[in-house]
Recover the amino acids of this structure.
């Protein structure tokens, strides 16, 4: 048995035991006891330090424990605060030292946690990069999952913009609706139809849904319901999930906070006036509004409800046929037999439903 004497204590805003979101944005003070003060000599030269502390409010532990994204893991394969010895080790960024106080960000310790040791972090760039690379290969969406679990909506909206091509309120709505529903459901997508998104519109909103949920047009985990509503249900394969729907007056809420938006929307989008400077100002305002929406309380813009939905079976693996007309390979179910010939839909005169900005329709 070893006994330890704390070298200091943590002071921060985290007074309650809860799942710590956004640790990177929380600044903590580590108050070092006087007789250890000389031990801080030259610590300012470090950008990152490892902090060893005690999870002093945790009681008991489970060897198999839930983790941030809802899956379960062995306690030693997790960062759960409920551990056999209650020891926390976290790499933090050192912002500054003022006498016996160290200001750090990224510490997932509660207020008053005893601190037992500090060390410069062995933050070898190459090693870090290497392990990140390995992790990305086994879980390509790990960074998105982390942003969701930490409530980092700004980073998520920025990334979703890479898919969508511009920033707009619809995209922001899709991002916010999906991340909040996913945060409640606590299930990540592995792109294998275990998590499904029922999206009720095909506009900007649905790109936010696809990027954040990982349920996409391509992996069959996106179910499109052509209802024309800014709403999405994030559901696990047992049918349990959450539906987030933009409130009826969301445009008024946005309009009252960003008065320039609605008049420009009328001119550029509704009246299709694409004059250069007008379009440019609209894009600017759209971007400001979309990021500004992240500051509006979620409940003012959305209704979020638990749902139980009927889930389709996993997408079938289709046999291939060769079209007797065009000679191209197609999924057998997407064609017909006509007078003994196999014909793909593209070669068939009958018009088949397709999806565009007008919804699902036949021409
Ligand atoms: Zn858009
Ligand atoms: Zn054909």
């Amino acid at each position: 048995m070893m006994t330890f004497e704390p070298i200091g204590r943590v002071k921060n805003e985290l007074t309650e035991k809860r799942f710590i979101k956004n640790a990177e944005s929380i600044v903590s003070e580590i108050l070092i006891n006087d007789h250890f003060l000389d031990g801080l000599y030259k610590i300012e030269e470090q950008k990152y330090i490892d902090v060893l502390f005690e999870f002093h409010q945790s009681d008991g532990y489970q060897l198999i424990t839930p983790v941030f994204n809802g899956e379960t893991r062995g306690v030693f394969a997790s960062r759960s605060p409920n551990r056999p010895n209650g020891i926390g080790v976290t790499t933090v960024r050192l912002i500054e030292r003022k006498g016996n106080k160290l200001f750090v960000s990224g510490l997932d310790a509660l207020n008053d946690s005893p601190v037992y040791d500090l060390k410069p972090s062995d933050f070898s760039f190459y090693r870090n990069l290497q392990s990140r690379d390995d992790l990305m290969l086994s879980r390509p969406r790990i960074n998105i999952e982390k942003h969701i679990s930490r409530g980092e909506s700004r980073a998520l909206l920025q990334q979703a913009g890479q898919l969508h091509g511009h920033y707009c309120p619809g995209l922001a709505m899709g991002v916010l609706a999906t991340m909040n529903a996913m945060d409640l459901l606590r299930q990540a997508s592995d792109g294998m139809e275990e998590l499904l998104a029922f999206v009720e519109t095909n506009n900007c909103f649905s790109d936010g849904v696809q990027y954040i949920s990982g349920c996409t047009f391509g992996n069959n985990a996106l179910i499109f319901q052509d209802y024309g509503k800014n709403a999405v249900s994030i559901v696990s394969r047992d049918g349990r999930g959450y539906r987030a729907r933009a409130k009826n007056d969301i445009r008024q809420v946005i309009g009252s906070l960003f008065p320039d938006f609605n008049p420009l929307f009328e001119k550029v989008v509704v009246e299709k006036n694409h004059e250069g400077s007008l379009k440019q100002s609209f894009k600017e305002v759209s971007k400001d509004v979309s990021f500004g929406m992240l500051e509006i309380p979620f409940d003012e813009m959305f209704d979020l409800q638990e749902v139980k939905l009927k889930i389709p079976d996993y997408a079938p693996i289709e046999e291939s046929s060769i079209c007797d007309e065009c000679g191209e390979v197609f999924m057998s179910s997407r064609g017909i037999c006509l007078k003994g010939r196999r014909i793909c839909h593209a070669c068939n005169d009958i018009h088949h439903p397709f999806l565009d900005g007008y919804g699902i329709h036949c021409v």
